[in-house]
Design a protein that fits this description.
- The chain has about 425 residues and is of the alpha/beta class.
- The protein is about 15% helix and about 25% strand.
- A 5-stranded antiparallel beta sheet has the order 1-13-14-15-8, with no helix packed on it.
């Protein structure tokens, strides 16, 4: 997961051009508009062979689907070349209940991640420096680390009881690199207690850790891709694809709730909460972060949670445009700007290759410089009273009003 780098103040000359115009209909309205009754399946992109493909037509059975309670074991690893200065309880508290709370809110209560942290350190057989831990870890050193960790823990852990495995290293050991935290996917699974272990989250975070870092890595366990852009030389801005708008882009984002597309993929949205738009359509979009009873920007906490969360326009065999409302609610409580967010989805793009890219409705301005991970996209949503035509696709969205509960009324014209 990337750490923040200095951000350039100048906008890229490659910024997209938009057409903005004010709308007259900005008053509150009390009820939803009629949505075009197209089946969500008509806009469900097909899952491809790309790593962590954004296809939503089927679930990849190689990954656990987070639509029930899943159990996660946290194994704390110490090394002969260091005496831990923290306790397993302290490290567990770095990540829980924050990680479970994030997923509870993101899933509208449909998924619970239940942690099972060990209460003691488990000693690795070799010094931390011998594993040459780093971000771009060599396969041989990584294999040594995982093999030793599994062998050391197997006497104390029944791995057959758990859906997710976290190996948490002593953050103060000299060979531990906090930039190396990641999910390791194994072509040949490790075997313990009669069960295959196909992926492990290797945690090397400092104490205290980066915000929501474990939630980001756990997203990979559920087949979600990296949405950040990694510069070839390691320098420059990592957040040009999605900015603050999804945890899989940055765990530091102001609005880190998972995209509606990801909630659809994970099984947290009912088909009726996704509208496939094939002709001019008026509909009401609930704020993505609002579950049943969740207040939205001080508005009453009623009437939201089970309505439409995502509108989709199919643009090609492997591409689509997605529209969702982002307001200060739930995991998005700290959002910089609210409105209707527009983004492109590419099912054929692999993790890290831009499978989702936010489209900036205000390409000549930026916002929240002091807090945003990428200010040029912090004001990307189409605001109340604005219209926006998506460059290259000629799809227009008009944000016409708000309901008393805080939902957004929009018209989408493909």
């Amino acid at each position: 997961m990337p750490r923040p780098f200095p951000r350039p103040r100048l906008r890229s000359t490659a910024a997209v051009f938009t057409t903005m115009s004010a709308l007259a209909a900005t008053s509150l309205i009390t009820g939803p508009s009629a949505a075009e009754p197209f089946s969500a399946a008509a806009c469900a992109l097909t899952r491809t062979e790309a790593h962590h493909s954004e296809g939503v037509d089927t679930w990849n059975a190689a990954y656990p689907q987070p639509t029930r309670t899943l159990d996660a074991v946290m194994v704390f690893l110490s090394f002969p070349d260091a005496t831990p200065r923290t306790t397993p309880d302290q490290l567990a508290a770095d990540h829980f209940p924050a990680t479970s709370r994030f997923f509870e809110q993101a899933s509208y209560g449909r998924f619970t991640l239940r942690p099972h942290p060990l209460r003691n350190w488990i000693r690795m057989p070799r010094p931390s420096t011998s594993y040459v831990i780093e971000r771009d870890w060599s396969a041989s050193h990584r294999a040594d680390y995982l093999r030793d960790a599994l062998a050391a823990a197997d006497g104390q852990v029944d791995f057959s009881r758990y859906d997710v495995v976290y190996f948490v290293a002593d953050p103060d050991a000299p060979g531990v690199d906090s930039d190396a935290t990641k999910v390791v996917n194994l072509d040949t699974p490790m075997r313990a207690d009669g069960t295959d272990i196909r992926r492990v989250v290797t945690v090397f975070e400092q104490h205290p850790p980066d915000r929501l870092v474990l939630a980001h890595e756990t997203g990979h366990v559920f087949d979600l891709p990296d949405l950040y852009h990694r510069p070839v030389d390691g320098k420059g801005d990592w957040d040009t694809y999605v900015g603050d708008w999804d945890l899989m882009g940055s765990q530091f984002g102001l609005a880190p709730d998972l995209f509606g597309w990801h909630k659809w993929k994970l099984g947290w949205l009912d088909p009726r909460q996704v509208t496939c738009v094939g002709k001019p359509t008026r509909l009401t979009l609930e704020p993505l972060g609002a579950g049943p009873g969740t207040p939205v920007a001080g508005r009453p906490a009623f009437g939201l949670g089970r309505g439409t969360k995502l509108a989709v326009v199919r643009t090609g065999p492997e591409t689509a445009l997605a529209f969702e409302a982002r307001s200060p609610a739930g995991n998005d409580a700290g959002t910089c700007k609210e409105g209707v967010l527009v983004y492109r989805v590419r099912a054929g793009a692999a993790s890290g290759g831009g499978p989702i890219q936010v489209i900036d409705a205000h390409p000549h301005t930026e916002a929240c410089w002091e807090a945003s991970v990428y200010p040029p996209l912090a004001d990307a949503p189409v605001a109340l009273g604005e219209s926006f035509t998506v460059p290259g696709d000629d799809v227009r969205v008009e944000v016409e009003g708000r309901t008393v509960a805080g939902a957004w009324t929009v018209k989408i014209t493909p």
